[in-house]
Write a structure and sequence with these properties.
Low-confidence stretches: 62-66
Largest sheet: 6 strands, antiparallel
Shape: rod-shaped
Radius of gyration: 57 Å
Structural class: alpha+beta
Strand order of the largest sheet: 2-1-4-5-6-7
Number of helices: 29
Number of strands: 17
Length: 819
């Protein structure tokens, strides 16, 4: 099997258009909306707004310049960052192969991995998932200035360019926070640019080449949605997820008015159920079935076509009842009294005599006018002459004036009487209002009838007008007040319901404006999600296959078989389902795996993403991936690393020596480095080809240190002797077992059962922990005293000096070389 890296396909947009072509039922609206959603927020907004042209199938993109160079890691230089104080460089072999960087926890090795991650991406998985106070302490406590990272890359030659180099730098000003980092890149021979100029931004998402222990755990432990997102990125389907999110956002925005109107309608029905106004039942019928007749609802609510509206209108009319004004009545009564008095001033007899004399004088005047002067035809004593005529005319003139005055008084009296008698004729009685009892209506109507009944005597009429007007005004005020109150009560009782109806009508009107687009967006979203399953299945298949192959190598002694992996749902219901079986019985794989198995599975899923053929990164960095693995998994993990190293620079940070030991045991070519951290955060990187040699160097430093107390030397040195001898025995034992074909985890189990230094030397020398090594110890003079120091320290009088160190070196050499 060869791990070449899963290919995740080409352009997602192009594949979507292929699915359009294959679907005869897809509508133009769905094509337009899905295509616009794939391209961005603005494009979708323009499409929904009707301002966009029909989207076109994406043209095949011509290659713009040479393909991105393939990058190997050459070195990581760090100062003032995390566990590294003064400037330290991690030098790496910049080509295909395995590099293992070992060191105890806290030595600073993971700081190199975090520095690489931050320089490449401007963020860190660990930083992003820790509390603020932890992120704020990113500067080294002992030497936080200057804080800088420099990552040197070697570029693999291709058909267009020879090999080159590039560097990414991350620098912080004095006292600057983590986020205020200046990140730049520079290709050899070219000017300095942003990190984005390398063209790796998308690749760092799709083919992320770095994974820490925390991220390995989080991939599967943070829930199925987190794994869904990681695999979605691996498959290059972020565009689908983004388009889904955009369409979902549009659905929510367009569906908001419809949901609000529907929810409001439900509440309105409850309001109508509790209303006693008959209009409530009418409105409930109108909104009981779609399509709702909003005009009829409005007319029923606000118009006068209903019985209740007519009742309120009648009451409002009564409340506006116009009764004769008491002041006006007094004016009419006063005029009548004056007319009566004026008329009574002239007696009828005087008026008649005056009238008769006036008639006689008129005749005499006519006679005189006809016959001239002569004796009076009546008395025959007087003479009708000019003097008489002049006197007669004056008397007649006075009598005519008196008669005219009397006639005017008579007419005035007639008018005043008529006004008084007609004063209450225009007052309307209060009609009967259906369904409403007006207690004051009868009294008002009786007051109207009484007012219209004039007394027989004219002299009583003025007083009647005045008293009837006052009584009628009081009755009118009472009926107006009652009618107004009843109308207000009816309107107040209906007003909240009317307002609720009007509010729903407004909401329903607004919702109808977006209903058409809402249906189109929902259809587009449904089509996208259905076809996203096709895309996921198509692209996930090679990843699942490769992950299964990797898992099969790493699952030593695990009873969990990995089955299929599917991505289900979307948005908040998205999840990745990992199928499997336990001892042949189907089960959810994630629920039955141990911590080590989960990490092994996470690696199996991560590696195809990081090693996909489209990745520009020729390196793969794993920070402490074996921390939770048992020995059985380490052997399988090493098998995977060997296969990956055929095409990749594989860099592994490890907190213990198990992986380097396995590499030495199998004689696998690899760069083995050791990281140590001294006082003041001084970090050093040294070759780690032989752990035994490291312990010898430590013992040498202790023994030859003149400033150390002799008691300290006698306490510390034997332990270093013991670790050096056991490290040599470990290397020899595992190497021999590997050559014999034994699997690593079986050898590890045998090794762990041997508890003493002599038992472990016996394993290396004889192959069994109970083997007799007495002859081997006595064969060379340096062996026995060295093993004695390992066993009982310096209690037997052994000297801890240069000679003892020489014996230690020779003993270690004998064990390793099999002498």
């Amino acid at each position: 099997m060869t791990l070449d890296g899963a290919e995740t396909g080409g352009s997602v947009e192009a594949e979507v258009w292929e699915l359009f072509d294959a679907d005869d039922a897809v509508t133009d609206e769905t094509v337009y909306l899905v295509a616009a959603a794939l391209r961005g927020d603005e494009e979708l907004a323009e499409q929904l707004g009707g301002n966009a042209s029909s989207p076109q199938r994406p043209a095949a993109k011509a290659e713009e310049g040479p393909a991105p160079l393939q990058a190997f890691l050459r070195s990581i230089t760090v100062s003032g960052f995390r566990g590294i104080g003064p400037k330290t460089t991690l030098q790496l072999n910049p080509y295909r192969g395995i590099t293992v960087i070992s060191g105890r926890n806290g030595c600073g090795k993971s700081s190199f991995a975090e520095a690489l991650e931050y320089a490449l991406t401007g963020e860190s998985y660990r930083f992003a998932n820790r509390a603020k106070h932890w992120r704020d302490s990113w500067r080294n406590l002992h030497a936080g200035e200057p804080a800088a990272i420099e990552v040197d890359f070697a570029m693999e030659p291709d058909d267009n360019r020879s090999g080159s180099s590039a560097v990414i730098r991350a620098n912080w000003a004095s006292g600057a926070p983590l986020a205020d980092c200046r990140r730049t890149s520079q290709i050899h021979g070219e000017k300095q640019q942003t990190v984005g100029a390398l063209g790796w931004e998308q690749a760092l998402i799709t083919h992320r080449p770095i994974m820490s222990y925390d991220e390995l755990g989080g991939l599967l432990e943070d829930g199925p949605s987190n794994l869904y997102d990681a695999l979605n990125r691996l498959l290059g389907l972020d565009e689908i997820a983004d388009a889904d999110s955009r369409l979902k956002g549009a659905e929510k925005r367009l569906g908001g008015p419809r949901k609000t109107a529907s929810d409001n309608r439900t509440q309105l029905i409850r309001t109508l159920d509790s209303a006693t106004d008959p209009r409530a039942d009418q409105v409930k019928k109108l909104i009981g079935r779609k399509p709702y007749d909003l005009e009829a609802v409005t007319a029923t609510t606000l118009g006068t076509a209903t019985d209740r509206a007519a009742t309120i209108a009648q009451l409002r009319s009564i409340a506006a009842l116009d009764a004769p004004d008491a002041a006006k009545a007094a004016e009419v009564a006063g005029e009548l009294r004056a007319a009566i008095d004026a008329h009574a001033d002239g007696a009828d007899s005087v008026v008649k005599a005056m009238a008769a004399k006036a008639a006689l004088l008129h005749e005499a005047l006519h006679l005189h006018a006809d016959d001239g002067d002569g004796p009076c035809p009546v008395c025959e004593a007087g003479t009708l002459d000019v003097t008489w005529r002049r006197a007669a005319e004056e008397r007649l003139k006075a009598m005519d004036a008196s008669t005219a005055e009397h006639e005017a008084a008579t007419q005035r009296l007639a008018r005043a009487r008529a006004a008084a008698e007609e004063f209450f004729r225009a007052v309307a009685t209060v009609p009967v209002v259906d369904g409403v009892e007006l207690d004051t209506a009868a009294a008002f109507n009786e007051a109207v009838a009484a007012a219209r009944s004039a007394p027989d005597g004219l002299s009583d009429l003025p007083a009647h007008v005045e008293s009837a007007a006052v009584a009628l005004a009081d009755a009118a005020a009472a009926v107006r007040t009652e009618a107004s109150k009843l109308a207000d009560e009816l309107e107040d009782a209906w007003a909240p319901t009317a307002q609720a109806i009007a509010a729903w009508v407004n909401l329903e009107t607004a919702a109808r404006h977006d209903d058409g687009q809402l249906v189109q967006v929902q259809d587009a979203l449904k089509w996208l999600r259905a076809n996203a399953e096709t895309l996921r299945a198509r692209r996930l298949a090679p990843v699942v296959q490769q992950a299964g192959e990797i898992w099969s190598r790493m699952r030593h002694e695990s009873n969990v078989d990995l089955g299929g992996i599917t991505l289900e749902g979307a948005a908040t219901r998205r999840r990745a389902v990992v199928e499997g079986s336990v001892d042949g019985v189907p089960a959810g794989a994630l629920s039955v795996m141990s911590q080590g198995e989960l990490h092994a599975l996470a690696l199996a899923l991560f590696i195809p993403r990081a090693t996909a053929t489209g990745s520009p990164f020729r390196f793969l960095v794993l920070d402490d991936p074996i921390q939770a693995m048992d020995p059985a998994k380490i052997g399988g993990f090493l098998d995977v690393l060997i296969e990956l190293a055929r095409t990749r620079q594989v860099i592994v940070f490890s907190h213990d020596d198990r992986l380097p030991a396995a590499i030495r045991a199998r004689s696998i070519p690899a760069q083995l480095l050791d990281v140590t951290r001294e006082e003041g955060s001084i970090v050093t990187v040294t070759p780690n080809d032989s752990p035994a040699q490291r312990y010898i160097d430590d013992a040498t430093a202790v023994i030859l240190d003149d400033e150390l107390d002799d008691m300290v030397k006698r306490k510390a040195t034997p332990g270093l002797f013991r670790m050096a001898v056991e490290a040599a025995a470990h290397q020899r034992f595992f190497t021999d077992r590997a050559r014999a074909g034994a699997v690593y985890h079986e050898s590890d189990s045998v090794w762990e059962e041997a508890k003493t230094t002599q038992q472990r030397v016996a394993l290396a020398v004889t192959g069994t922990a109970t083997g007799d090594v007495s002859g081997w110890k006595s064969y060379r003079p340096h062996r026995f005293p060295t093993i004695a120091i390992c066993a009982s320290g310096a209690h037997n009088g052994a000297k801890l000096d240069r000679a003892a160190l020489t014996d230690l070196r020779n003993t270690v050499r004998d064990i390793v070389e099999g002498r």
